[in-house]
């Protein structure tokens, strides 16, 4: 029975799992769960993931959610190149460290900002202005830490010369910022040269799947940017200048 | 060279790492970094952990922070750690990673959001955000319900119905222990509906005795003082703020 991946390509952690499967030739069936249509709340999906979040996988008897847990499981259960999740305990520990850091920093920042300032208002969901402000502060701190610490030795995260599951996970998160207006994207991302180069390196290392999986995001980017221009602007990201 | 563990016993993830080392007979030197006295911001500590958080470890030349990463590393790198802490079985391990990841966004956000931003930071003149406890008060009961009804489902006393504890049990229970800083009344109000959770805390305590109690003594030693000061300053943890520095 083939691996099933329940995903929404607008969801950063969903994209990470999809790209990982494709670049490693893991045979799987992608089952779309459209979050903005509330499909994660169906009784069928609740049986897969009672937390109502994407992604989730079903591999035989195993049902699993949380993208980091999924990426680690796939690295161990399927034959993948060792750089994705090295067996050496110290190298592996560094990957766990950045994945954990990601939850409280980059994910909270990028996810919080894009959801509350763009996706929620444009899809008729409630958003919280205070969360937008907090999220942008966290995001800027996180991008700074990425630029000056996690990528300080160049190459990929934690000084590795090849990408790991952490690179895919965090890069997919940063890609979510593409939903911001061009002006806000450049204002936020402008200073971070190493981060931008790192995204390109991951794109190359996982080609052509990175771009293919992000196609839906780019289509939405166009739509959102056009709609935000005519939107009331009250949920726009506010410049700190 | 002995393992060094940089910890503050008032920090939940620090306690999890300390208890794990002690219960597994891992030889280590504990170096206290008091976050309420800003010791995590010294240049020396920034060399160990540039994120200025506890815990962190130094094992020879290897430095590591984030408690889950540390627990996994210690379970893997040190001989003689029983398999139940971090099973070699890929399926069992995956479940542990799943609950540890869930913990970040749920239980930790809930418990820390209330305790740090409405009690510890305001009482000690540290920067805090009064909006955080408000969000956290919604996340915490949700997290406890999920623990009660999902993660603790099964025949055994530990997460996933396991018969023996894993690093996830230790990490999450240490987080819930932080709620002991709340007033007695609020602690009871929040936790009393969750019978399985309360039993699981006891079972985890017993499985790691006497270290669990010993490491938590630091928390209990200041608990009364904190509770008295909260009453005296008329800061109810519901208001979450005082003249201390507030993030606007």
Give an overview of the whole structure.
- The complex is a heterodimer of chains A (241) and B (248).
- Chain A has 241 residues and is α+β, with helices and mostly antiparallel strands.
- Chain A has helices at residues 12-23, 43-48, 67-77, 89-104, 106-122, 129-150, 165-175, 182-189, 193-205, 209-213, 215-230; strands spanning 3-7, 28-32, 56-59, 62-65.
- Chain A is built from eleven helices and four strands.
- A four-stranded mixed beta sheet of chain A has the order 2-1-3-4, with helices on one face.
- In chain A, a hairpin with a 2-residue loop joins β3 and β4 (62-65).
- The longest helix of chain A has 22 residues, at 129-150.
- The radius of gyration of chain A is 18 Å and the shape is globular.
- Chain B has 248 residues and is of the alpha+beta class.
- Chain B has two domains: 3-81, Glutaredoxin (3-Layer(aba) Sandwich), CATH 3.40.30.10; 85-224, Up-down Bundle (Glutathione S-transferase Yfyf (Class Pi), Chain A, domain 2).
- Chain B contains ten helices and four strands; from the N terminus they run βαβαββαααααααα.
- Chain B has helices spanning 12-23, 43-48, 67-77, 90-105, 107-123, 131-151, 167-177, 184-191, 195-207, 211-232; strands spanning 3-7, 28-32, 56-59, 62-65.
- Chain B has a four-stranded mixed beta sheet with strand order 2-1-3-4, covered by helices on one side.
- In chain B, α1 runs antiparallel to α10 (211-232) and α4 packs parallel to α7 (167-177).
- The longest helix of chain B has 22 residues, at 211-232.
- Chain A binds chain B through residues 50-51, 62, 64-70, 72-73, 76-77, 89-90, 92-94, 96-97, 99-101, 103-104, 130, 134, 145, 149, and chain B through 50-51, 62, 64-70, 72-73, 76-77, 90-91, 93-95, 97-98, 100-102, 104-105, 129, 131, 146, 150.
């Amino acid at each position: 029975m083939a691996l099933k991946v329940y995903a929404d390509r607008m969801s950063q952690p969903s994209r990470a799992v999809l790209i990982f499967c494709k670049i490693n030739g893991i045979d799987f069936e992608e089952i779309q769960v459209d979050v903005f249509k509330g499909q994660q709340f169906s009784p069928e999906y609740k049986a897969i993931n009672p937390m109502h979040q994407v992604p989730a996988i079903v591999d035989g008897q195993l049902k699993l959610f949380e993208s980091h847990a999924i990426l680690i499981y796939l690295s161990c259960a399927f034959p993948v190149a060792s750089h994705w999740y090295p067996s050496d305990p110290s190298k592996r520990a560094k990957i766990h460290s950045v994945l954990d850091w990601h939850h409280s920093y980059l994910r909270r920042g990028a996810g919080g900002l894009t959801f509350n300032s763009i996706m929620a208002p444009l899809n008729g969901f409630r958003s919280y202005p205070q969360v937008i402000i907090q999220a942008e502060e966290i995001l800027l701190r996180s991008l700074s830490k990425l630029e000056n610490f996690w990528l300080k030795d160049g190459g990929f995260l934690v000084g590795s010369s090849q990408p790991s599951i952490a690179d895919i996970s965090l890069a997919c998160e940063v890609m979510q910022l593409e939903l911001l207006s061009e002006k806000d994207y450049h204002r936020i991302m402008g200073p971070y040269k190493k981060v931008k180069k790192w995204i390109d390196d991951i794109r190359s290392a996982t080609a052509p799947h990175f771009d293919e999986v992000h196609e839906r995001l780019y289509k939405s980017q166009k739509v959102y940017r056009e709609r935000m221009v005519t939107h009331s602007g009250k949920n726009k990201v506010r410049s700190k200048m | 060279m002995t393992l060094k563990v940089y910890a503050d016993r008032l920090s939940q993830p620090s306690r999890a790492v300390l208890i794990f080392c002690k219960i597994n007979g891992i030889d280590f030197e504990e170096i206290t970094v008091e976050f309420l006295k800003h010791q995590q911001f010294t240049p020396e500590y920034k060399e160990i952990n540039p994120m200025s958080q506890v815990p962190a470890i130094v094992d020879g030349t290897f430095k590591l922070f984030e408690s889950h990463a540390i627990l996994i590393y210690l379970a893997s790198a040190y001989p003689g750690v029983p398999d139940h802490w971090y099973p070699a079985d890929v399926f069992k391990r995956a479940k542990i990673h799943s609950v540890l990841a869930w913990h970040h966004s749920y239980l930790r956000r809930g418990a820390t959001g209330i305790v740090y931003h409405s009690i510890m930071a305001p009482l000690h003149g540290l920067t805090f955000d009064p909006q955080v406890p408000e969000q956290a008060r919604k996340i915490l009961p949700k997290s406890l319900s999920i623990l009660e009804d999902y993660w603790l489902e099964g025949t055994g006393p530990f997460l996933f119905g396991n018969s023996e504890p894993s690093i996830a049990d230790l990490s999450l229970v240490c987080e819930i222990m932080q709620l002991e800083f709340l007033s007695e009344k609020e602690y009871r109000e929040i936790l009393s509906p969750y019978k399985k959770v309360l039993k699981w805390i006891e079972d985890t305590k017993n499985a790691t005795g006497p270290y669990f109690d010993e490491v938590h003594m630091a928390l209990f030693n200041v608990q009364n003082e904190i509770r008295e000061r909260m009453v005296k300053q008329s800061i109810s943890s519901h208001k979450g703020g005082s003249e201390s520095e507030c993030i606007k």
